[in-house]
Sequence to fold (414 residues):
Amino acid sequence: MTDQISSVSAPTTMDKVIDRLRARSLQTGGARQMYEKTIAGLDGPRVRFTDGTNPLMLATYDYLGLLDDERINQAVKDAVDTFGTGGHGSRVWGATLTLHRRLEQEIAEWVGTEAALVFASGFVTNFSVIASLAGPGDWLLSDQRNHASIVDGCAAAKSAGAVVKVYRHNDAAHLEELLTQAPPDAARVVVTDGVFSMDGNLVDLPGIAETCRRRGALLFLDEAHSLGVIGPHGGGTPDHYGLPNAADLVMGTLSKSIPASGGFVAGRHDLIEALRFTTRAYVYTGAPSPPNTAAALAAIRLVRQEGDQRRARLRRNLDRLLHRVRQEGLRTTDTGSAIVPVILGENAVAIEVSRLCQEQGLFVLAAVPPLVPAGTARLRLNVTAAQSLDDIDRTVDIIAAAVRRVGAGSLVAT
Ligand code: PMP
Fold:
């Protein structure tokens, strides 16, 4: 009898697991459905959701406006005709296609390195390559605001015996101080985002790269939001700063300005080949699919051919957006990237503003903890080359009206 009662009331392992997961989830204040809309189709810079709405998309990583480009779509169809939709298994088990080889070669040419290695996703690239790079006793130093995939890669390296240190955001002096504490014979690897994804700001590459050089550390640079997008030639943060060889390993994703999915690292041939047969997410997983690989390859070719015009349009849109947002008295910064944060403060305010914008045909989302620190909830706008100036003006009009309606007078910069 007693047993029966306790088995009914005591939380089961399933209850405990679900409770713990809920405690860590996005603090969306009950507005989770807003974050989980389902896209039924595309319409230029707009999306068609299954709920019948057709908003302008300001929460997209399609920075260069290449998503749904008919030349990329055609390359995918051709690849499916030649190779089918899937593969034969792992790249190291006979499944490498000509497409994979070409993609790796053209990524290396694009980034300006000797070689490149492609993975199934950007997250997995960071996670697995970072875990491979630092072994027992090696020192791994990571910026405080690095992406979750880097944080998890560092945790994996730590559990394998690496020493992990987190340096203050973009603080080269703190990095230097930590590097001086490493034993002289320890290998040192420094990992940083090129563009920090929630604030949109750039790495202090001159400071961080110089510190690495002086202290003999290898620099791993995550260019997920910057390759193709920033720098006079679209070469990312090294191009922006005029430091083409600042990083030893450049990581990039194939899911943002390149509208496919996957990730890569690019660097010296001997390092890349050493990673190829050791990185677990390369060895123990199926090769990227033919359609996906073909999409990435076709997109990289287009970025190399048409990048200048697309970046010029993107810059024009960014300038207009920043100008108009400031004119409305909202708090933002010119981050140097295509990510524009509009800081609103409280989660509930940011979520309500986002909801009102969506009602008016503008899809923007509020970034809330744990994505951003508490008290800094924000709208996170992504500008792209596909948007028109009218789209940008409408975006700001809708946001400004929503902020006024929520009555967030204190949100406005003084
Ligand atoms: N690095 C950074 C800085 C990112 O912002 C992201 C994803 N937003 C990734 C890596 C992971 O890339 P992917 O989405 O291709 O897995």
